[in-house]
Design a protein that fits this description.
Layout lengths: L2 H17 L8 H15 L4 H10 L3 H9 L10 H16 L8 E5 L6 H14 L1 H7 E7 L2 H9 L1 E2 L9 H7 E4 L2 E4 L1 H4 L2 E5 L11 E6 L8 H14 E9 L12 E5 L4 E4 L15 H21 L3 E6 L4 E4 L1 H6 L23 H11 L3 E10 L2 E13 L5 E10 L3 H98 L3 E6 L4 E4 L1 H7 L3 H4 L17 H8 L7 E6 L5 E13 L3 E11 L2
Parallel strand pairs: 1-2, 1-7, 2-6, 7-8
Antiparallel strand pairs: 3-5, 4-5, 8-10, 9-10, 11-12, 11-15, 13-14, 14-15, 16-17, 16-20, 18-19, 19-20
Helix pairs in contact: 1-3, 2-4, 5-6, 6-7, 11-12
C-alpha cells in the first residue's frame, strides 16, 4: 500500500470514528476522486492535510458528505424495467394470499425519494388507491439526512417530474407554490428513515426490495455482505430489483435471476440442500461459501427439531423456531412480545429467574427433568439457557432450548438408523464424486479464467456507471449555475437599457468618464452638440477628442472631482457641430458607488441661450 493510500485509509478511519460514517467498504477509486475534488476546492494537496483541516473545522464534514454521497436519481429510471415490474412482479405480489395480506417494500439508497414514489405509483396502479393505502408500506432509506428531508416533503420541480407519464403526473401530483407535490393521502404509505446498509440491521419481512445503483459504490466483500442482509430481509417469495450495472446477485447462492436483463431476482431458499461445490483457491470463493453457510445456519435454527426461543435484554421474545411455536402454542404475532406476557414464562418452568441467574453467572445454565403436563401426557424436558454475546463480549440476550428427553431412546434409535442410511448414501455419493472429479478438474482452469475476466469487466462497468453518475451530478450543478448567470445577464441588459433610456431622454450633452479620463458613456445630446457618435468616443481619452469644446480647461476640475472635491460650473466658448460660436455651461459631478467611492466624473454640457 502506497503512502498516499495509507493516508486515505487513515482519513476514512478518522471519519468513521468521528462521525460514524463508515466509508471503508466503498470502492477506493470513486472515493479518492470525490474526496480529492473537495480538497481541490479548499486548495489542500494531501489526505493528511485534509484530515487536519477536518479536525479544526467540524462544519466541513457536511460539505464532504454532500460531495461523497452522489444523489443521482429520477422517476421511472429505465422505463422498460419498471413496465416489467408493474406487469409481472407487482401483480404477482398483489395476488398472493388472496390479495389481503400487507405488502412491505424497502427501497435503499432512496436519495431524494423519486424512486420510492415511483414504487408507490406502480403499486397504486395495480392495487387501486384504496387497497394501496390499506396494504402497502414503503420504507425509503438513505444515509444522507438532507436528501431524506427533501423526500419527506415530496415537492419536485417540473424538470424533475418530466419522466413521469402525463396520466400519472395528473393523477398523483398536485401543483404547490410553483412545484409539484406527491399526493398527501398516498404519501403516508411512504416512510423515510436513515439507514446505513454497511452497519445497520436490515428491515425484515420484505416482499419487494429495490436497491438500484447502490451496490456499485461498494467493494466486492461489502457487496456480498449487503446481499446477505437483503436475503435475510426478504420473505421466501420476495423479489430483489437492482440497477442495470449490478449483476453480482446472479453469482451468489442467495438469489436466482427472474429476468436478468431487467435485473430482477428471486430469493433462493438456502435451507434446501444443494450440491457441494468443489474447493476453490481464490478468496472470493471462500467468502461465497461462508455466506452460504450463514444462510444454512439461519435456516437450521428455523427447522431445528428442538424447540428454541431467543430473548433479548429487555425480555422480548425476538425469535422462536417452528418446534418452539408448535410445542408451546405460540402464534407468529407472539414473536416480539415480552416473555412475561406469555404463558411460556412460567410453564413448564419459571424462566425469568433462571434467565437472571444465567446473566449473573455469565455461563450456560441447564435445568434437567422438568415435569410438563402436555394435554393428558406427562413429559420431561431438559431446559438449557445460553447467554448470547457479540464479538466484543457485550451481552445480547439468552437462547433457550427445550429437549424432550422422554423420547431420547427412540430418537437415538432413529438417529442411528439415519446415520447408517447416510453412510450408505455417502458411499454412493463418493463414487459419483470420484467419477465427476476428473471432468471437474478439466473444467476448473477454464472456469477460473472466465470468472476472472467476468469480474474485471463487471468492475469496469460499475466504475464507468459511477463516473457517469458523478458527471450527471456535475452537469446538474453547471445547469444551475448557467441559469443563475442567465438571470444576472437579463438583469444587466435591463439595467443598461434603462440607463440608455435615461441618458437619451436628456437634451443636455452628458459625458461619463472613468478615473483614466476615458469616455464610458456619450448620450444623444452630446452628438447633437459636437457631431460625434457614441461608438466614435467610448473608450477614448476625453482630452484627446477633436470637438468644438475646449477641453484643456476641464483637466484641473476633473482631477478635483476625482479626488473627492467639488468643482464650480464653468462657462466656456465653443463651436457646435455646425461650426457656430456658442457659449456652454459645464457642470462636473462625481460618479460614486457604495463599495468603491468615486469611480469617475459625469459632465453635463448645456448651451446658454
Amino acid at each position: 500500500m502506497s503512502e498516499r493510500d495509507e493516508d486515505l485509509e487513515t482519513l476514512l478511519a478518522f471519519i468513521r470514528d468521528e462521525r460514524a460514517f463508515d466509508f471503508t467498504g466503498y470502492k477506493r477509486p470513486s472515493l479518492e476522486r470525490r474526496i480529492t475534488r473537495r480538497m481541490q476546492d479548499l486548495r489542500i494537496d494531501s489526505f493528511a492535510g485534509y484530515r487536519e483541516f477536518l479536525e479544526r473545522n467540524q462544519d466541513e464534514f457536511a460539505q464532504l458528505f454532500d460531495t461523497i454521497l452522489i444523489n443521482v436519481t429520477s422517476f421511472f429510471r429505465d422505463p422498460a424495467a419498471w413496465q416489467y415490474i408493474q406487469s409481472e412482479v407487482v401483480q404477482s405480489i398483489a395476488d398472493r394470499d388472496g390479495g389481503h395480506d400487507p405488502i412491505r417494500v424497502w427501497t435503499t439508497g432512496c436519495s431524494t425519494g423519486e424512486e420510492a414514489y415511483t414504487v408507490a405509483m406502480v403499486f397504486a396502479e395495480v392495487l387501486g388507491e384504496h387497497a394501496f393505502k390499506r396494504r402497502v408500506k414503503i420504507y425509503a432509506t438513505d444515509v444522507d439526512d438532507s436528501a431524506l428531508t427533501i423526500g419527506r416533503t415530496a415537492a419536485y420541480t417540473e424538470q424533475q417530474i418530466a419522466a413521469v407519464p402525463p396520466e400519472l403526473r395528473e393523477k398523483y401530483f398536485e401543483p404547490v407554490n410553483g412545484s409539484y407535490a406527491f399526493r398527501g393521502d398516498l404519501r403516508r404509505s411512504v416512510i423515510f428513515g436513515r439507514h446505513d446498509l454497511v452497519k445497520d440491521p436490515p428491515i425484515s419481512r420484505i416482499d419487494f426490495l429495490v436497491s438500484r445503483n447502490t451496490l456499485m459504490y461498494f467493494d466486492s466483500a461489502t457487496q456480498r455482505r449487503v446481499l446477505s442482509a437483503f436475503h435475510f430481509a426478504l420473505r421466501p417469495e420476495g423479489y430483489l430489483f437492482l440497477g442495470k450495472s449490478e449483476v453480482l446477485a446472479a453469482r451468489t447462492g442467495y438469489f436466482t435471476p427472474v429476468d436478468l436483463k431487467r435485473r430482477v431476482f428471486a430469493k433462493v431458499d438456502t435451507s434446501v440442500p444443494r450440491e457441494r461445490p468443489s474447493p476453490e483457491s481464490d478468496d472470493a470463493a471462500r467468502d461465497l461459501q461462508q455466506q452460504a453457510d450463514q444462510g444454512i445456519r439461519e435456516a437450521g435454527f428455523e427447522v431445528a427439531p428442538v424447540a428454541q426461543i431467543v430473548v433479548d435484554l429487555s425480555g422480548r421474545v425476538v425469535a422462536a423456531n417452528v418446534q418452539g411455536r408448535m410445542q408451546f402454542g405460540l402464534a407468529q404475532q407472539d414473536v416480539g412480545m415480552l416473555l412475561q406476557d406469555l404463558e411460556l414464562s412460567y410453564r413448564p418452568l419459571e424462566l425469568r429467574s433462571r434467565i437472571e441467574q444465567a446473566y449473573t453467572e455469565g455461563q450456560a445454565l441447564s435445568v434437567r427433568d422438568v415435569e410438563w403436563q402436555a394435554g393428558n401426557e406427562t413429559r420431561y424436558l431438559d431446559i438449557h439457557l445460553h447467554p448470547l454475546t457479540d464479538a466484543t463480549g457485550e451481552r445480547l440476550g439468552v437462547a433457550i432450548a427445550f429437549f424432550d428427553v422422554t423420547r431420547y431412546r427412540r430418537l437415538q434409535e432413529i438417529l442411528d438408523a439415519s446415520k447408517r442410511e447416510a453412510e450408505v448414501a455417502h458411499e454412493e455419493l463418493q463414487s459419483t464424486v470420484e467419477e465427476l472429479e476428473t471432468t471437474n478438474e478439466e473444467l476448473q482452469s477454464t472456469n477460473e479464467e472466465l470468472e476472472t475476466t467476468n469480474e474485471e469487466l463487471q468492475s469496469t462497468n460499475e466504475e464507468l456507471e459511477t463516473m457517469n453518475e458523478e458527471l450527471q451530478s456535475t452537469n446538474e450543478e453547471l445547469e444551475t449555475m448557467n441559469d443563475e448567470l442567465q438571470l444576472r445577464a437579463d438583469e444587466l441588459t435591463t439595467a443598461n437599457a434603462f440607463l440608455d433610456g435615461v441618458l437619451g431622454s436628456l437634451s443636455s450633452g452628458v459625458v461619463v468618464i472613468d478615473k483614466e479620463l476615458k469616455v464610458e458613456a456619450w448620450n444623444g445630446g452630446s452628438y447633437e452638440l459636437w457631431g460625434l457618435r457614441a461608438d466614435e468616443t467610448v473608450g477614448r481619452h476625453l482630452l484627446n477628442l477633436d470637438i468644438g469644446l475646449p477641453l484643456e480647461p476641464l483637466r484641473k476640475p476633473i482631477r478635483v472631482v476625482l479626488a473627492g472635491g467639488a468643482a464650480e460650473p464653468l462657462r466656456l466658448e465653443a463651436l457646435n457641430r455646425r461650426g457656430r460660436q456658442i457659449e456652454v455651461a459645464v457642470r462636473l459631478n462625481p460618479l460614486t458607488t457604495t463599495a468603491h467611492g468615486v469611480i469617475g466624473v459625469v459632465l453635463m454640457v448645456e448651451p446658454i441661450a
